[in-house]
Amino acid sequence: MGLRLLMIGPPGAGKGTQAAQIARDHGVPKISTGDMLRDAVASGTSLGLQIRETMSTGRLVSDDLIVALVRDRLRLDDATVGFVLDGFPRTVTQAEALDGLLNGAPLTVVEIQVPDEELVRRVRGRRICESCGTTVSAFDGDPAQASACRNCGGRLVQRSDDSEAVVRDRLQVYWKETRPMIGYYEPRPTFRRVNGALAPRDVYAAIAGAIGSVAAGR
Ligand code: AMP
């Protein structure tokens, strides 16, 4: 049976990186609402123009718009076997809407926890490859040399909402809007919490273990 996984965590927790790996392992798509919205902004669609300002300040895009986007994405063939959701849901309203879309299909929920100051440090040093989308940390090597992607040689850039001021706002939004949503999932037997302050491979092992334990309990 395909995996249906939600990755919850604040900006910089490593959701995107871990979600990509877990999705590859299970042969299911990684669905990131942040990536979908950034694509819409980059291509200048009417959706992109509507949400550009909201995203640049770190606020959340409206629940209606996001739920419609995810509903359409989950209808595509590749998502019928399963998916890893990264960055959605972020509010209780979105979580309730997702339950409606899933129609009772089993869902594994993993929360990645990382202290705030570590998140700010990580996000300030985060760079994204313009060509292949790989995320790297400028702290992994000499920041002065962190200009070319090790995968494809593409240019590494900083997301406009990864500045320290916007990151602090995004964290506030997270604690206000998304923390209550975690309370929505927490009582479920398919909810797990992992320590995201560890090295990426250890976080990966913890997530893989969490998925295995949920599957064993079904
Ligand atoms: P992310 O890449 O997940 O950090 O998302 C970047 C930005 O996209 C967020 O700061 C929000 O402005 C917007 N966004 C992404 N996912 C959602 C969502 N599920 N609900 C509302 N806004 C979202």
Describe the fold and architecture.
It is a single chain. This protein is α/β, with parallel strands linked by helices. The chain has a single domain (4-113, 163-215), classed as Rossmann fold (3-Layer(aba) Sandwich). The protein has eight helices and eight strands. It has helices spanning 15-26, 33-42, 46-56, 63-74, 92-102, 116-124, 164-185, 200-217; strands spanning 4-8, 30-32, 83-86, 108-113, 126-129, 135-137, 156-157, 191-195. The protein has a five-stranded parallel beta sheet with strand order 2-3-1-4-8, with helices on both faces. A three-stranded antiparallel beta sheet has the order 6-5-7. Helix 2 (33-42) packs across helix 3. The protein is globular, with a radius of gyration of 17 Å. The relative contact order is 0.18. Adenosine monophosphate is lined by residues 11, 33-34, 37, 54-55, 58-61, 66, 87-90, 94, 161, 170.
List the helices and strands and how they pair.
Elements: E1 4-8, H1 15-26, E2 30-32, H2 33-42, H3 46-56, H4 63-74, E3 83-86, H5 92-102, E4 108-113, H6 116-124, E5 126-129, E6 135-137, E7 156-157, H7 164-185, E8 191-195, H8 200-217
Parallel strand pairs: 1-3, 1-4, 2-3, 4-8
Antiparallel strand pairs: 5-6, 5-7
Helix pairs in contact: 2-3, 4-5, 6-7
The chain binds adenosine monophosphate.
Adenosine monophosphate (AMP) binds next to helix 2 and helix 3.
